[in-house]
Design a protein that fits this description.
alpha+beta; Histone H3 K4-specific methyltransferase SET7/9 N-terminal domain; nine-stranded antiparallel beta sheet; four-stranded antiparallel beta sheet; 37% helix; rod-shaped
Length: 288
């Protein structure tokens, strides 16, 4: 390689340079990769980037590597934010809400148990001077009724528990593993019931809320309105009366009024028949 180098830059020719001088100029940034260089061993001018060893470009980037690194950083940042949101922000709040709801139900059930316990016989209240064989002693010593369902209930199953029920979630007491007592049932489709359960069925008095916003409060049998109740529509209209297997039968007062009218009609008919019979008897007596 010749010792004399020339540089064509900004429409001007500079040089001659020795190879060392040319290299130093390139390292200092005064010779750019697109600048033209030439020496006597070359046929024509070429870009400085094509001269081996002249332009060392440590800043040459591998864009694929940069993209991979950037994606990895973004993924870790996003994962960290999601982890923080779930376990340090939302998680505790959800746990507190669920715990508070369960505590309220347990306290309510405990209050009912306390009321029931207050009704039980207290041995300390017996007057020691009373005759143990008297009537009071006989009443307190009476054995429990074998037909009472409460006597067969397992105390461990009467506690408030949470379990799946009809595709939803039930919270309340259980009997033989089935909802039994006062509890709350929610379904993902929007149904919600709060009230009495009996041996795994929605049965008794309670409030059923439907997905369309309607709310029924009254008596139910097997999950359907059956008996006296009130349906409140989303627009505020209320319909009260008698229901049979979820079908509205009408207002109770109107039914009683119709029966009264029918009864009066029947009485009038009987009176008319009685008058007719008396007239016939009178006519027969006159002929005689």
């Amino acid at each position: 390689m010749g010792n004399h180098w020339f540089v064509f830059k900004n429409q001007k020719q500079k040089g001659p340079y020795t190879w060392k001088q040319l290299w130093l100029e390139a390292q200092a940034g005064r010779i750019k990769p697109r600048d033209l260089v030439w020496n006597k061993t070359m046929k024509d001018w070429v870009m400085a980037s094509k001269i081996p060893g002249l332009i060392n470009n440590p800043r040459k980037r591998n864009y694929l590597t940069i993209a991979v690194i950037a994606s990895a950083v973004f993924f870790f940042v996003l994962s960290g934010a999601a982890f923080y949101y779930l376990f340090f922000y939302t998680g505790p709040q959800l746990a507190v809400n669920e715990e508070q709801e369960e505590r309220d139900i347990i306290e309510e059930a405990a209050g009912e148990d306390e009321l029931n316990n207050n009704d039980l016989f207290d041995p300390d209240q017996i007057d020691q001077n009373d005759d143990p064989g008297g009537s009071q002693g006989n009443e307190t010593a009476t054995a429990p009724d074998p037909g009472n369902d409460n006597d067969d209930t397992d105390p461990t199953e009467s506690r408030v528990k949470r379990t799946s029920f009809q595709g939803g979630t039930y919270t309340g007491p259980l009997k033989d593993g089935e909802p039994h007592g006062y509890g709350v049932w929610t379904h993902p489709d929007g149904h919600r019931y709060e009230g009495d359960f009996k041996e795994g069925k929605i049965e008794g008095y309670g409030t059923m809320t439907f997905p369309d916003g309607e709310r029924y409060t009254g008596y139910l049998v097997d999950g359907k309105a059956h008996g006296q109740g009130t349906m409140i529509h989303p627009d505020g209209r209320q319909v009260s009366g008698t229901w049979v297997e979820g079908i509205y039968q009408g207002e109770t007062e109107e039914d009683d009024y119709d029966e009264t009218e029918n009864g009066e009609d029947d009485d009038n008919g009987e009176d008319e028949n009685a008058d007719g019979d008396s007239n016939d008897n009178n006519e027969n007596n006159d002929e005689t």
